[in-house]
Design goal:
By secondary structure, the chain is of the alpha+beta class. 34% of the residues lie in helices and 30% in strands. The strands form 2 sheets. Strands 1, 2, 3, 4, 5, 6 and 7 form a 7-stranded mixed sheet that branches. The protein has a 3-stranded antiparallel sheet with strand order 8-9-10, with helices on one face.
């Protein structure tokens, strides 16, 4: 009987070893690449954020705008009217005529011119049979200010009717015009007051006005009910907000025109 011989065939692990080696090599290379590619951690405050950069850009734009507007040139010329056609009342008016960069602001100039000449025409009709002789007088002041980035010219026009015999005023009134030189247009109380006094400017103005009339003994605190409308006459002088109340608009006519300076509350 023949003896059968078997040769055992051993399994080869060479492929597994090579695969494992490649896996470790490639995995290590990926990890090393990731480590080298990772950005350095950013410490808060060590680098400008997008918002910070936008703020800086806004500041730069504001500075540039303010510098540009500061250099805007303007001129205010006198226009004089002396009307003696009515024996009972004559006029002595000096009103402003505004030019910006050599260009006349015709709309604003016409508005001012017409307003005071029309008023004098009415006065001539009303006072044609007056017992005394009167003079209608108009004069003005100019105030230049930078409000934020805007160059604002404020005009205050002071009108009065003077009794020539008694040498005293029988009527006084102040009107105001505030011109943004960049836009060449009249600006509003909202635009100016909000910049100077903050978003709660109406409350600030009301509080200051109330304090003024109460401290001056014109009105009791319990009687003060006035609400700021935004339509009041106002002007800017030396960077301060002034609000005007003409005779009888807020308190008794005996107190005349009220010019109240309003400061921002801290």
């Amino acid at each position: 009987m023949e003896t059968m011989h078997y040769r055992e065939k051993k399994k080869s692990y060479k492929g597994v070893i090579i695969t494992l080696f490649l896996f470790v090599l490639i995995g290590g290379a990926i990890i090393l690449f990731a480590i080298n590619s990772e950005q350095e951690p950013v410490i808060i405050g060590s680098q400008e954020s997008d918002i910070q950069r936008l703020v800086e850009l806004d500041k730069e734009d504001a500075i540039e705008t303010a510098s540009k507007n500061t250099s805007i040139s303007y001129e205010v010329k006198d226009v004089t009217y002396n009307d003696t056609s009515n024996v009972k009342i004559k006029s002595n008016m000096t009103i402003p005529q505004i030019f910006v960069e050599g260009e006349e602001l015709t709309e604003i100039n016409s508005k001012i011119d017409q307003e005071y000449n029309d008023l004098f025409t009415k006065l001539k009709e009303q006072m044609s049979s007056a017992e005394s002789n009167y003079t209608y007088i108009v004069s003005y002041n100019v105030y230049e200010n930078m409000i934020g980035t805007d160059k604002i010219v404020s005009l205050t026009l002071y009108q009065r009717v003077r009794d020539d015999s008694a040498k005293k005023n029988t009527m006084e009134k102040v009107d105001t015009y505030n011109i943004n030189l960049a836009t060449k247009e009249l600006t509003t109380q909202f635009e100016i007051a909000q910049e100077l006094l903050g978003k709660d400017y109406k409350s600030v103005i009301k509080s200051e006005v109330e304090d003024y009339v109460v401290q001056e003994g014109m009105m009791k605190e319990s009687d003060f009910t006035y609400a700021i409308t935004g339509l009041e006459n106002f002007y800017i002088k030396d960077g301060s907000f002034h609000i005007i109340f003409n005779e009888g608009n807020l308190v008794d006519t005996k107190y005349g025109v009220l010019d109240i300076e309003v400061s921002a509350q801290k």
